[in-house]
Amino acid sequence: MLTRTTTKAASLIGGSQSGISRLLSELETLTNLTLFDRQRGRLVPTREAMLLFEEVQRRYAGLDNLREFALQLAAPRAATVKLGTSFSYSLGFSGSVISRFRKLHEDSKVVLSLGASDLIRDRLLAGAVDLGIVAAGRDLSSFHCLCDMTQRAICAVPSGHRLARNKSIALAELLRYPFIAYQDDDMIRWGLTQLIAQRSKDLDIAAVVRYGVNVCTMVSRGVGVGIVQAVAAYDYLESSAIVFRPLEEPIDFHAYLMAPSTVGLSPLAESLARMVRESFEEVQTQLERAIRS
Q1: How many CB atoms lie within 10 A of CB 131?
Q2: Nearest to 208 by CA among 254, 233, 168, 196
Q3: pLDDT at residue 262, rounded to an integer
Q4: Residue 282's Cα: distance from chain center in Å?
Q5: How much of the chain is helix, strand and coil, in % rounded to 5?
Q6: How do residues 59-73 score in pLDDT, each as one tens digit?
Q7: CB count in 10 Å sphere of residue 35
Q8: Tens of pLDDT, residues 174-227
Q9: Which of 235, 276, 234 is nearest to 255 (CA)?
Q10: What span, in angstroms and rounded, lies between the C-alpha atoms of 65 and 128?
C-alpha cells in the first residue's frame, strides 16, 4: 500500500520480491478480493484494498493507544501524547497549549506533528497522533469532533495604512489595495474566490501564500493587505507593524479538533484536548480586544 511495488516493499521489510508476491496472492485468495490492479510493474490499490488498509490501521491504532495507556499507568514519567496540526496552529497557539499542559503534567511530553490537513487526517487514521486539528472540506466521518474551532475571518493591514483607522473593513474596500492571496484550493474552499470576483474586477495580487502566518508576516512588512484567521493573528497581537480589523462580510475558516472515533482517548490525551479548548477560547478573547482597540 505504501510502496506500490513488490520490489520496494521487499526492500522495506528486508524480504524477497517473490515472497511479497506470494503473500499478496495468498491474501487475495483468503479474502476472495482483488486488492491490487497490476499496471506496468506497479500495484494500484483497489477500493477494497483502501478500505481494508484503513481498518488495519484502526486496529493497530487501538493497540498503540492501549500500550500508551498501560505505559502511563506503570511509568508516568515516560508518558507521551501526540498532537497533529497544520503550520498555522503550530506557533503561538501550540505554545500556549503545551505550556498549559506542562503545568499539569510536568513529567509528560507532547510530540507536535506538523502537516497539511490531509496528512494530519491520515496520521489520525493510522494512530500516529492522538489528536489532530484539521480544516473542513475533508472526509471526517471516521473521527470524533472534540472542539469546533471555526473562526471568523479578519482583515490584516499595515499599522500606517489608511484602512487601519477603520473600525471595520468591507471586502470591496480591502481589495482596492495590493492583496496577499492564498493558494487556489484554499481560496475556493473558504469561498474567497467567488466573493472577490463579485467585488473586484481589477485585483492586484501582491503575493500568493499557503498560511495565515505568511500573510501576517508580509502585511507587517508592507507588502499588502490580507485576510487571516484568529490563530494566525494571535502571533502578531503585540506587533506594532500590523493592525487587525473585523471584516464586514461573514467569512469563516472552519477547523476542528478531532480524535479517532474507534479508540478511546488516554487520560493525557483528554487533558491535552482540554488545553486546546482553553487556549482557543483565550485566542478568541484576546483577538476580540485587539480588533476593537
Answers
A1: 25
A2: 196
A3: 73
A4: 19
A5: 50, 25, 30
A6: 665 666 666 666 656
A7: 19
A8: 999 999 988 877 776 667 777 777 776 778 889 999 888 899 999 999 999 999
A9: 276
A10: 10
Q: Would you give the distance in Å from CA 259 to the centre of its chain?
A: 13
Q: In this structure, are residues 134 and 121 in contact, taking their beta carbons and an 8 Å threshold?
A: yes
What cell does 235 get?
Answer: 502571533
Count other Cβ atoms within 10 Å, centred on residue 116. 14
Residues 6+ apart with CB under 8 A from 23: none
Cell numbers 488545553 correspond to: 275
Has this prediction a pTM greater than 0.70? no
Please report the pLDDT score of residue 210 as a whole number.
85
Quote the pLDDT of residue 189.
64
Count the Cβ atoms, other than its own, within 10 Å of residue 38.
10
Amino acid letter, 282: E
Task: Retrieve residue 183's grid coordinates.
Answer: 493558494
pLDDT at 62: 60
Torsion from C-alpha of 97, 102, 104, 108, nearest 10 degrees = 120
Residues with Cβ within 8 Å of residue 164, at least 6 apart in sequence: 157, 158, 243, 245
Hey, which residues does 44 pair with through a beta bridge? 37
Helix (H, G, I), strand (E, B) or coil at 217: helix
Percentage of residues in the chain with pLDDT exceeding 90? Answer: 33
Domains of the chain, each with CATH number or no CATH: 6-45 (no CATH), 53-150+254-281 (3.40.190.10), 151-253 (3.40.190.10)
Amino acid at 13: I
For residues 18 and 23, what is the distance between their CA atoms, to the nearest angstrom?
Answer: 9
pLDDT of residue 269: 92
